[in-house]
Write a structure and sequence with these properties.
The protein is an alpha+beta fold and 319 residues long. The chain has two domains: 116 residues, no CATH class; 124 residues, Nucleotidyltransferase, domain 5. The chain has eleven helices and ten strands. The two termini are 33 Å apart.
Length: 319
């Protein structure tokens, strides 16, 4: 199985419809044995002109394509453009704007915006277990996401730039490992400690800032505090790993995406977490772009997102 190693190679390789289809078949069906998504039987025939399969069993929805049951379902956009879009979002450090994607693959900005959110849906993955344990160290920190001063009219800055008008994001990071982060909507009942208990092994070394809410974790974790009023580092006690992640997140939000609707913030957070958690393998070696691309594609099944669902703004951050 060929693997494009760069974006340029991916564009060239997937421009052949047969390559794009074969790649999807190889990733979706074991041993390239195509099976009907309705009945599960592999007694199917390929309809070459339609680039679909037809199940020989008699039932509804006998004909199906490689897109059925994936984030690509019912999209008129061909696979070659979809696969390039997945490659770009999986591997561009600061994300990809809908305008840039539209220019690159030749679709409208509206279509590109919808495509990117569908890909982010695939990037929503369940955690690989709790963080910390043993000698591993865990950082917990929070940040506020909102408008930048240069994007707000001067007479509205006092109103728009305060913390009360920004979204709160909380992160839990294992040093040298993965991150879990969540958008917090109700600051009157901030579930910070519940988030830590959900994602961190008890008795782990835990480093936070001086927020008093964390004090109740003292008996459950080896909890140490850094007072940012006095300094950001006290030996091993700091949250610099999460500060770096917040910097990456905000660079994408303010530099690439510019205007992010608050409700959809969790989708952009999921995107950045996906790239961060898949930057290195178990041996701490950098993960190649094509591997990260395949990891994103491995999550496309059962995650369809319709335009109506996206614009209705009813979906919550799942994990």
């Amino acid at each position: 199985m060929k693997h494009p190693r760069t974006l340029q190679q991916a564009v060239q390789y997937f421009s052949d419809p047969d390559n794009a289809l074969d790649y999807m078949v190889h990733l979706r069906w074991a041993n390239d044995k195509v099976a009907c998504p309705t009945c599960g039987r592999d007694d199917v025939v390929f309809l070459k002109n339609q680039r679909k399969w037809q199940c020989k069993s008699v039932h509804n929805h006998r004909q199906f394509s490689a897109k059925v049951g994936t984030i690509f379902e019912d999209s008129p956009i061909p696979l070659d453009k979809w696969l390039v879009a997945v490659w770009m979002l999986s591997n561009c450090r600061n994300g990809v704007s809908s305008y840039e994607l539209a220019r690159t693959i030749g679709v409208t900005q509206k279509s590109a915006w919808f495509m990117l959110h569908r890909i982010r849906k695939a990037m929503q993955t369940e955690s690989g277990g709790k963080l910390g344990g043993g000698s591993k160290q865990v950082e917990v920190d929070e940040t506020f996401i909102g408008a930048k001063a240069r994007n707000v009219h001067q007479h509205k800055r006092a109103e728009k730039l305060g913390k009360a008008n920004k979204a709160m994001v909380v992160g839990v990071l294992e040093r040298g490992g993965e991150i879990r982060a969540r958008v917090i909507k109700d600051r009157k009942a901030i579930p910070l400690c519940a988030l830590v208990r959900e994602h961190v092994v008890p008795k782990s070394s835990l480093f936070t800032d001086k927020l008093m809410t964390y004090n109740e974790l003292d008996t459950e974790f080896a909890h140490e505090v850094v007072d940012h009023a006095e300094g950001y580092v006290r030996g091993q006690v700091h949250t610099n790993g999460l500060e770096n992640f917040w910097s990456l997140l905000k660079r994408g939000l303010h530099g690439t995406y510019v205007s992010v609707e608050p409700f959809h913030l969790f989708r952009y957070l999921d995107e950045q977490m996906f790239r961060y958690n898949n930057r290195r393998d178990a041996d701490k070696k950098p993960i190649p772009d094509y591997v990260r691309f395949n990891l994103a594609l491995s999550n496309i099944l059962g995650k369809r997102l319709t335009y109506a669902e996206l614009t209705a703004k009813t979906e919550e951050q799942p994990f």
